[in-house]
Amino acid sequence: MLKTTRQRLEQAEARLSAALLEAERIVSSAHAKAEEIAGEAYGAVGRLKELTEAAAAIKNKIEGYGDSYIIPTYHLLDDLAEEIGYTEAGQKLKDARELSKIMVKNGQAAVCDYAEANRRSTAIRFVTDAFNGKVDSILSRAKSDNHGMLEKEIRDSFALVNVNGASFRNARVTEAYLQARLEELRWAATAQAIREQEREEQRRLREQIREEEKARREYERAIKEAAKEEQNLRKAMEKVEAQVAAASEAQRAEFEAKLAALQEQLRQAEEKNQRALSMAQQTRTGHVYVISNIGSFGEDVFKIGMTRRLEPADRIRELGDASVPFEFDVHAMIFSEDAPSLEKQLHRHFLRQQVNKVNPRKEFFRLGITDIRQELEELGVQTQWTMTAQAREYRETLQIEQQIRENPVVAAEWTRHQMEYEEVADEEVVID
């Protein structure tokens, strides 16, 4: 029985091989007949397909394949539309995506010249799926600043899909469906811009809250310290007053001088306490600063900002932390009872000089220091100015770089010193 089963299996495999050979012969014969009838046109269709696939493969090799596991595009854009659905852009994006779905459902996305319904439906589904696959991938990369480039990619995909679809009785995506998908792109880019603005505003508000919290803690600490200083001075004055009362004529002058000095210290402490109380109560009181960082941003680039810190220099030191290679130079530190308004006036006046034309919150301006000084003087603001940036670390760095280039001994010594510093830094991290 086992032998019979094996024989039947061998016979079946033989028949299958024969059928495959016959199928290959029929296909070959059909291709030859088609080429004989259509001539070069038939061969051109095949070559177009081969060339299109080759071009796409080369493009992928050059540009990369992107994220193969990206979340389906409809989730990304639908989530985006939902997130900012309260805005016009969010609602328009929802409407645009719904229109595209309706057009596919109603058979308005593509057309074909096949007379047979089944073939026509298959060809239409083929070009629609091909086009949507490309467009969905493109839309997944939609940002606020790449609308033009992505629109070109979608139009190119439209053209290529329709060229390939010509082999299937002119199966092609409709112009109306192309416009519907371009409308999705338009509102996706707009929605992304709105979301980016909202995120930047949230970041700014968080920074403002942190800054105000630091300022509040500084005021509270300053008030406590001033109150303690006043208390100590008053005790010292009471002691000296008792000494004055008990002193001889020769000693009286010495104690009275000491008492006068303590009274002056007490006056200053009271002023400091009052200033801290006043700044804590007046939320708009603060300092507007003008600073530069030649080593990081180059000449004639200034940051015009505002802080409510009791010690504004602390804020400048924070700005010059590890995020920039060199420390900032302070050109002006202006106390104002309405610091936000003064800062806004300066920002509006120098609007065209913004370094970042996309995000004005960066507060950097490309202009001369004399322009800022002149505008403040016209506003009636008087302050002390440092017109030339010291840029100490930057200028010293330039000197060291020159010495390293010219003197191998200096280069070796500098390298050794840096390596020792790194080792010490590593040890400190371990200890911490």
From TrEMBL:
* The protein, known as: DUF4041 domain-containing protein
Q: Which residues form a coiled coil?
A: 188-282
Entry keyword Nuclease: no
UniProt keyword annotations, A-Z: Coiled coil
Q: Which InterPro entries match?
A: Phage_T5_Orf172_DNA-bd (IPR018306), SNIPE (IPR025280)
Give the top-rank taxon of the lineage listed in the UniProt record for this protein: Bacteria
A Pfam family that this protein carries is: MUG113
Species this chain originates from: Pseudomonas fluvialis
Keyword Coiled coil present in the record's keywords: the answer is yes
